[in-house]
Amino acid sequence: MLPRPRATVAPGAVHVPGWLTTQRQAQLVTACREWGRGPVPFRHTRLPRGGVMSVRTVCLGWHWRPYRYTRTADDVNGGRVAALPDWLTELGRRAVAEAYDDPAAGRAYAPDTALVNFYDAQARMGMHRDQDECSEAPVVSLSIGDSCVFRFGNPDTRGQPYSDVELVSGDLFVFGGPSRFAYHGVPRVRPDTGDPATGLASGRLNITLRVTGLAD
Ligand SMILES: O=C(O)CCC(=O)C(=O)O
Ligand SMILES: [Fe+2]
C-alpha cells in the first residue's frame, strides 16, 4: 500500500496517517483492556434525553458524561476513574509536536483526561463538538483497529462544509486552533479492516486526549 500523505483537513486540524507503529498500537490495545477492567468499566453513555450512545467508553483522569467532567463515574458505578498515565501524556505531547511541526506546542501540551471509545461494526457517533473542556488546547485522537469514516466539519454548523477522512489503524488526528470546537463525528465503521497484529480482532478503538482546564 502506498503511504498516505499527511494532510491539513481544516485550519488547525491535521491528519497524520500511520503515526503509531503496530507495536505501539498493540501496547495501547493491552492498556485499553486493562482500563476496561476497572475501577470503572466500559459503558454505553446515557444521554440526558434518554438516548444511549452506541460506542462504549471508559475515561482516564476525569470521567466524562454529558455534559461535564467529574472525578468519579457517578453514572456508572461511582468509582474514581483510573489515572492518566505519564506515558500517554508523553505520547500526546509528541503527537502535538509532530502534527503541528512545533516542538514548543508539544512541550506546552498538558492533557489531563482521555476518553477511550470502542466501536463495534454497528457503532456510530453523531456530529458533535468537544466543548465540555474549559481550554482551547488541541484534542489528540488515536485510532486502532477497524477503519472508519471520520467526518470533520466546521465550528458553526453540523452540516457542510465538512470533509470525510478515512481513519485507519495507527492514524493520528489533531484538532486545535480554529478547529478546536469544530463539529465532527463517525458516520461509519468498516468491519474487518483492522490488522489482528494489534491484538484487536474486531472493532475500532479511538483514544482522545484533552485538556479539561479544570482544577480539583
Ligand atoms: O472516534 C473518533 O474518531 C472520534 C471520537 C470523538 O469524537 C469523541 O470521543 O468525542
Ligand atoms: Fe468528539
From TrEMBL:
One of its GO terms (biological process) is oxidative RNA demethylation. The keyword Oxidoreductase applies. Residues 110-213 form the Fe2OG dioxygenase domain. GO terms for molecular function: broad specificity oxidative DNA demethylase activity; ferrous iron binding; oxidative RNA demethylase activity. GO terms for cellular component: cytoplasm. Keywords: Dioxygenase, Iron, Metal-binding, Oxidoreductase. It comes from the Bacteria. Binds 1 Fe(2+) ion per subunit. The keyword Chloroplast does not apply. Fe cation binds at residues 128, 130, 184. Its cofactor is Fe(2+). This is DNA repair protein. The lineage of its organism: Bacteria, Bacillati, Actinomycetota, Actinomycetes, Kitasatosporales.
